[in-house]
Write a structure and sequence with these properties.
Layout (H helix, E strand, L loop, with lengths): L1 H26 L7 H9 L4 H6 L1 E5 L5 E5 L6 E3 L11 E3 L1 H12 L9 E5 L4 E4 L14 E4 L2 E5 L3 H4 L14 E3 L7 E5 L2
Parallel strand pairs: 1-3
Antiparallel strand pairs: 1-2, 3-4, 4-5, 5-8, 6-7, 8-10, 9-10
Bound molecules: copper (II) ion.
């Protein structure tokens, strides 16, 4: 009787710590969004009229892109990436899209293709020094930037005009990922 009592107590303890573990997991993992939610998220990155004409694409596991809606104006909007802590939807022109593809694929961005990107939904956080960091670490200079636009793929001489500190003042223009193939201008709009 005693033995059985102990076993069931143990089972309850295991079950309740499992529930705690699952709650902790749920708390720092965003629920997967459906297509409609992803379109709303993606469109929040650009001014209304730009977002309305844009193609909407979502990144699937493994970096594969899926088209949620075809557009007409040459812009592509992508919803918040749930793998990163802050909201980071973005809307970009064709050259910036090629730049993003290069970044995801760890390849060199195409030369001579300056790109433009909106990230108007704000609250974006990222490592300012590691293009592939997904969460804050002791030495990866995790920073937050409000609503901003970005210039990608410009010549080094363009980026040399702006601060390249690892811990920049994000309320004024600065260079993210300075000194890497993915350095780009971050310019706040508010
Ligand atoms: Cu940005």
């Amino acid at each position: 009787m005693h033995g059985l009592h102990n076993i069931s107590r143990g089972a309850i303890l295991i079950a309740s710590s499992f529930v705690l573990l699952m709650n902790a997991y749920a708390a720092d993992t965003k629920a997967p969004a459906n297509d409609k939610q992803m379109i709303v998220s993606a469109m929040s990155a650009a001014p209304d009229k730009v977002a309305k004409g844009a193609t909407i694409m979502a990144m699937e596991a493994g970096g594969k892109m899926r088209t949620l809606r075809e557009g007409t104006n040459g812009f592509t909007c992508m919803p918040d990436n749930p793998a990163t802590p802050g909201p980071d939807p973005m809307c970009m022109d064709k050259n910036a899209m090629e730049w993003v593809h290069a970044w995801i694929a760890h390849t060199a961005p195409p030369a001579g293709k300056v790109g433009f990107m909106y990230m108007l939904s704000g609250g974006t956080d990222a490592s300012n020094t590691d293009p592939y960091a997904t969460k804050p670490e002791p030495n990866n200079h995790w920073i937050k930037t409000g609503p901003h636009v970005m210039i990608t793929g410009a010549d080094a001489s363009f980026y040399d005009n702006y601060p390249k500190s690892a811990d920049p003042d994000t309320s004024v223009p600065y260079i993210m990922f300075a000194g890497t193939p993915y350095q780009h201008l971050m310019a706040p709009v508010k």
